[in-house]
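Structure in, sequence out. Go:
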C-alpha cells in the first residue's frame, strides 16, 4: 500500500498489513475507515462509488476476479481524478472552441461569397424584370404601343413574351371598347335627337291644342287647325277630310297650301276605301304612311301638289266611328316613320275632339237660336192676343206726372230704346227733349237701357200674373159649376142648372142645349 493509502485509512505505516489481510473478515479489522470502505463495497453493487474517507471524497473502483471470486479494489482521491477529467474537458473544450472559430471564419467567408454571388445573380435576374417594369409603367401611362424586349428564352423571356401577348389583347380589347363606346355614343345621340324631336313635337301639339280649343265655330276652326299644324311642323300641305252624310266620299274641308285651296274651290273629294291613303284611312280607321316609291308612287300624281314626296293620313274618330282624316304631306323623302304616327295620332285625337266640340257647339247654337226665335214668336203672339184684349194707351211724362195720352204737339223723340223680352220687342221707351240737337251721355243711355229691360220684365210679369188670376178664376168657376151639377141625378135638373150657371157666368149670352136625334154609332 502506498504511503497515501495509510494516510487515507489512518493506519500506521509500521503496522503489518499482512496481519490485516490474514483475518477472516476485513470487516472485523481494527481500522474503522478501512472497515467502512469494505462495508460500502459489499453493500453496493456498483463498480464505482464515491465515499468520504477521512473527510476526503474518494472514488472506489472494484471488479470481481473470476478465478477467485474476490474483488479487486482501487482507491483514488476524487480531486486527483477530477483534475484529470477537468483538464481533459478543458482540452476538449479548447479543441471545440478552435473548431468553432475556424468554422465561423469559414462560414463568414462563405456568407460574403454567397452575398456577392447573389447580388451578381440578382442583377442578372432582376434586370429583365426592371425593363419589364418600365414597360408596364409606359403602358399604364397610356402608351399602348410599348412592348417588352425578349432577350432570352428563360423564365424572364417567357414572362416578357406573355406580357406582350397580354398587351396585344388589351390593345385589341380597348379598341373594341372604343368602337362600342362610339357606337353607344352615336346611339345615345340619335336617341337624344329623337327625344328632343318628340319633345318639340309634343310642345307643338300643346300649342296647337291651345289654339284650336279657343275656337268654337267650325268654319273658323278647320282653317285654323291646318294653318297651325303647318306652321308648327313645317308641313308642305295639311288637309282635313270629312266624311259626307252618305259615307261615300271623304270631302276636303280645309287646307293650308295653294294647291289645297284650289282643290277646295272645286269641291275635291275621294272615294272612301278606293282612292288614295285618305280613302283607305277613312274606311279602315288605321293611320297609314305613303312614300313616292313602289306601289305608293301612284298616290303622288296630283298636279295640285307636285312637290309631295311623303304623305301620312291619320283617322279622326268620334268614339268608334271614323268621321274624317288628317292628311299631312312633306317635300322630303321618307319624312315619316311609325314613331311619327304614334306622336301625331295624339294631335289627330285633339283635332277630332275639337271638331266634334265645334259641331256640338254649332248644333247647340242653332238649337238655341231656333228656341229663341220660337220663344220670341210665342211671346209676340201672346202679347198681340193680350193687347187685343186690353185697351192699353200710350203713356208719357211731362216733368210732373204721367199721362195716358201723348200731347198733340209734335215731340222730338231723339232717343228710342226698344222693350225687349226674350228676343221679342213688346214696346218702345222714347226719350224726348225740346233740344233737337241734344246728345245723350253714355250713363244716361245705360240708365235708360237698364230701365227698359226691367220694365219689360215687370210688364211681362204683370201680364203673366193677370193671366194666372184669370185662369184661377176660370178654374174656380168651372169647379163651382161642376160641384153644383155633380150632386144632381135628374137630367132636367142638370140641364137647368148648367144653363143657369153659364148664364150667370156669361152675362148677355143666350145659352141653349140641344140634343142630336140622329147619332152615328159607328
Amino acid at each position: 500500500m502506498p504511503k497515501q493509502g495509510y494516510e487515507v485509512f489512518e493506519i500506521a505505516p509500521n503496522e503489518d498489513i499482512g496481519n490485516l489481510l490474514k483475518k477472516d473478515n476485513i470487516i472485523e479489522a481494527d481500522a474503522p475507515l478501512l472497515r467502512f470502505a469494505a462495508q460500502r463495497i459489499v453493500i453496493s453493487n456498483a463498480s464505482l462509488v464515491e465515499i468520504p474517507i477521512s473527510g476526503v471524497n474518494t472514488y472506489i473502483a472494484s471488479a470481481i476476479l473470476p478465478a477467485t471470486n474476490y474483488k479487486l479494489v482501487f482507491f483514488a482521491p476524487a480531486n486527483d481524478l477530477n483534475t484529470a477529467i477537468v483538464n481533459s474537458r478543458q482540452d476538449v473544450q479548447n479543441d471545440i472552441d478552435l473548431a468553432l472559430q475556424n468554422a465561423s471564419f469559414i462560414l463568414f467567408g462563405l456568407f460574403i461569397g454567397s452575398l456577392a454571388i447573389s447580388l451578381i445573380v440578382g442583377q442578372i435576374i432582376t434586370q429583365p424584370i426592371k425593363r419589364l417594369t418600365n414597360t408596364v409603367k409606359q403602358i399604364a401611362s397610356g402608351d399602348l404601343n410599348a412592348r417588352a424586349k425578349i432577350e432570352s428564352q428563360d423564365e424572364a423571356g417567357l414572362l416578357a413574351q406573355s406580357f406582350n401577348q397580354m398587351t396585344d389583347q388589351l390593345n385589341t380589347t380597348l379598341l373594341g371598347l372604343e368602337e362600342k363606346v362610339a357606337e353607344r355614343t352615336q346611339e345615345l345621340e340619335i336617341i337624344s335627337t329623337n327625344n328632343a324631336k318628340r319633345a318639340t313635337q309634343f310642345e307643338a301639339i300643346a300649342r296647337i291644342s291651345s289654339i284650336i280649343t279657343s275656337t268654337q265655330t267650325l268654319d273658323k276652326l278647320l282653317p285654323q287647325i291646318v294653318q297651325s299644324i303647318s306652321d308648327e311642323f313645317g308641313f308642305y300641305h295639311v288637309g282635313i277630310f270629312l266624311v259626307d252624310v252618305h259615307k261615300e266620299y271623304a270631302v276636303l274641308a280645309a287646307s293650308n297650301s295653294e294647291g289645297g285651296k284650289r282643290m277646295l274651290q272645286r269641291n275635291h273629294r275621294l272615294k272612301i276605301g278606293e282612292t288614295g291613303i285618305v280613302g283607305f284611312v277613312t274606311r279602315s280607321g288605321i293611320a297609314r304612311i305613303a312614300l313616292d316609291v313602289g306601289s305608293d308612287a301612284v298616290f303622288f300624281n296630283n298636279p295640285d301638289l307636285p312637290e309631295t314626296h311623303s304623305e301620312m293620313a291619320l283617322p279622326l274618330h268620334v268614339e268608334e266611328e271614323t268621321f274624317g282624316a288628317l292628311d299631312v304631306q312633306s317635300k322630303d323623302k321618307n319624312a315619316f316613320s311609325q314613331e311619327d304616327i304614334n306622336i301625331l295620332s295624339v294631335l289627330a285625337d285633339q283635332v277630332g275632339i275639337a271638331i266634334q266640340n265645334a259641331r256640338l257647339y254649332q248644333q247647340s247654337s242653332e238649337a238655341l237660336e231656333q228656341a229663341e226665335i220660337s220663344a220670341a214668336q210665342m211671346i209676340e203672339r201672346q202679347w198681340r192676343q193680350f193687347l187685343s184684349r186690353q185697351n192699353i194707351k200710350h203713356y208719357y211724362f211731362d216733368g210732373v206726372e204721367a199721362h195716358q195720352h201723348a200731347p198733340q204737339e209734335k215731340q222730338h223723340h231723339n232717343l228710342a230704346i226698344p222693350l225687349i223680352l226674350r228676343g221679342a220687342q213688346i214696346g218702345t221707351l222714347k226719350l224726348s227733349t225740346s233740344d233737337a240737337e241734344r246728345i245723350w251721355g253714355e250713363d244716361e243711355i245705360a240708365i235708360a237701357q237698364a230701365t227698359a229691360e226691367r220694365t219689360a220684365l215687370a210688364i211681362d210679369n204683370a201680364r203673366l200674373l193677370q193671366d194666372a188670376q184669370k185662369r184661377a178664376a176660370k178654374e174656380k168657376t168651372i169647379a163651382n159649376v161642376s160641384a153644383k151639377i155633380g150632386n144632381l141625378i135628374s137630367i132636367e135638373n142638370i140641364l137647368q142648372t148648367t144653363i143657369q150657371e153659364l148664364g150667370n157666368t156669361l152675362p148677355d149670352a143666350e145659352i141653349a142645349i140641344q140634343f142630336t136625334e140622329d147619332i152615328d154609332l159607328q
